Amino acid sequence: MSQPDIGPTEDEKLPSGSPETIPVYNAQTGIRFQHPYRRKVSALLRDMEIDPETVLVIQCNTLLTPDESLTPQEEVEIRPVISGGGFAS
Amino acid sequence: MKCRVCRARAVIDLPRHNAAFCPPCFDSYLMDQVWKAIDEFQMFTKTERILLAVSGGKDSLALWDILDRLGYQTIGYHLDLGIGEYSVDSLEKTRQFAQKKNLTLHIEEITREAGGSVADISEVTNRPPCSACGVSKRHLFNRAAKTHGCQVVATGHNLDDEASRLLGNILHWQDGYLEKQNPALPDDGGLVRKVKPLNRLTEKEMAAYSFLNGIDYVVHECPMSVNAKQLFYKKIMNLLEKESPGTKQAFYFGFLDRRNRFYPEKEPGEAPPFNCQLCEAPSYSEICSFCRLRIKVTSPQEKPSRTKKKSSSSSSRV
Fold it and tell me: Is 3.40.50.620 the CATH classification of the domain at B23-217+226-317?
């Protein structure tokens, strides 16, 4: 979901020495890729234009809430939660 | 973020409740929501047998886990839809779950029961795949419930499913569907009672429950539902929810509170006048709609173009 680009907040600014990228795994497509490192889950999701209510964010086998910090170098799994098709069943 | 109950580290935030929970407190919250749904709509009792339609996705497997934990008598029923690798994966996850929990599971194949896969039925009937799938499921769930002595069929539809369905039905003023949009449809006209005990919980909550309880489910979307209207309505509902948390729940439960005003409760309907000449299911015509569909799918004139290719691959994998 797009949002206007308002830039990083004070909380989201990267400290010096932060990694440039973080490994991300999209559990629905099975695709792994590198994404520019963001300190907070909320910033990563905003960057990727993802509504936090539509995914689980998992790192080191732990569920993360949007305010949590991401551990550099550890893969972040983005697991979509939306399913569905017909109304009938 | 801290747990609203015990102040431990939260793993899920629920903006619509202005709350966040740690794993144990989230579990208590979620079990309580399911219990409330069962109780409020008098879905079933502990002496009844429940046929649970299990797809292998997060909702139905989680529901099976929850009902088992709550001490209800469940029998799992999985319908193999014949959708390539997606169905292979779905069946495997369902089987593994049942084995791990030592739960009873019955499996049927749509290709055997309806004469073709969902894609075949869709092609022959010229209906969207989800609609073609729905006709078969309705009939086969009901038949399975009767065969296995179950008084009720339970499905894993959640709050997002129900709110998006409501939106679609209202946008097109589908009175027939709105009248039946009820988390507990009583047995009527030869159809067993049908219930949706997850109607108070969102997709995210069900996915979180599955993750936290180590339930291995099919994460991939059904390839047939990629363009489904319901996904579009879910997107709209999520946009509204983002702007105003709680909208989804207020919309859906607001409708349920007012439903009787618009669609007054009817006396239980009489059983349909016929029994299908082919399958003996109660029917409004001499041949029931499912058998008519099967005749159409298997008729040489209507034979779907893809059937020949598919049948060889599906027989080798089962």
Answer: yes
